[in-house]
Design goal:
alpha+beta, Helix Hairpins, 5-stranded mixed β-sheet
Length: about 450
Amino acid sequence: MRRYSLRRRLLTLLLASVVVAWAATTLLTYNHAHHELDELLDAHLARSARLLLAQEGDEFEEIRIGESADAGPYGQEVVLQVWREGQVLALRSAGAPEVRLSPVETGFSDATVAGRHWRVFSGWDVEREVLVQVAEDHALRERLLAHYTLSGLPALLFGVPLLGMLVWLVVGAAVRPLAHLGHEVSRRGPSDLRPLPDGGVPMEVNPLVERLNALFARISASMQAERRFTSHAAHELRTPIAAIRAQAEVARDSIDSTVREVALAHVIEGCDRAARLVDQMLLLARIDERASQDGPANSRLDQAAARVIADLAPAALDSGVALELATDEAVSVAVDGALLDVLLRNLLDNAVRHGGAPGPVTVRCTEGADGALLEVTDHGPGVDEAELAQLGSRFYRASSARGPGSGLGLSIVQRIAEGCGGTVRYRRGDGGHGFAVEVRLPSRSAG
């Protein structure tokens, strides 16, 4: 992804906003000034005409008023004419044409004479003997309007660079804590997961720092858990490997075929135990990745339970344990189907191994307002109340566990349930006999 400078981007946006705002303000000012200037200059024309008409009794002779040296830059832009009976030119100013400025005899009008565009005011005296026309070149109005409208341009040309410099300095000071934060992160090693300091951090950046610190805390906890997992795995693998080696040495050194066969059987049993342990550890490593895959999950818990029971029933019967599914309703859960099968297999395998004969293992699936409930109950010796809180920890085996195992089955169940937003609860069976696991999972409407 293309990176950009925050300071440069803010500078560009702010200066562009200033230019756009100035242009819009200039346009509005131009329109308003155009209207006000027209009214002001029209009033000036009308007043000049009335002053001439007030000269009653004076004899207007056909004379031409000469140019004045102090008329100013706009002296030739305003002209006047005096007409007797509206037909005979009695008086005109310098620059005024010899023909009527406008055929309109009263009020304001626009006219073009000799290629020049005029704004004309026409008025008669009381006896309607004298017609006075005072005109102003429209070019004068346009120049005045442009002058006043663009008078702020030099200030803009000076102010925009000054504003850009100030924005550059202010934004630089504002983002300096971000630079310090980046430097603090860059100089850390991979194993340095201490929380980032939040002192002096802007309020807008504080949520980012908090989430980074939360991420560091989760990574630290995960690394510690992985270290414990590696240590426990090494310890658990050492036992079956040592047993396999011992039995292999017995088989090698024994000349009795019966002893050799027993030793080899123990070797195979130890290999199976080690293989199962490795499979469970690999499964634990893949659960988080599987649970975080994109896409909505929707599985039928009752169908998955029936399918897993059908797969495990023959082996369970060989151990003297019957598997029962005590549900007749459709229960849908928001859990990936493959993970759901793993969860059910580990629960049932745990119940068959450690619950054992004589009672059956019962599976119940129900759906309520707070989610779907999966309950697996056996009729074995159960687990002491003091040990219930430790169940689900990796490599932990209850003191009452009967069959072989590595202590990872319930840990896998708990990891899957928590990864899907569910919970796991361990308790003694009804009446204080046996052992029960309750897994509550997020439900979906069956479809």
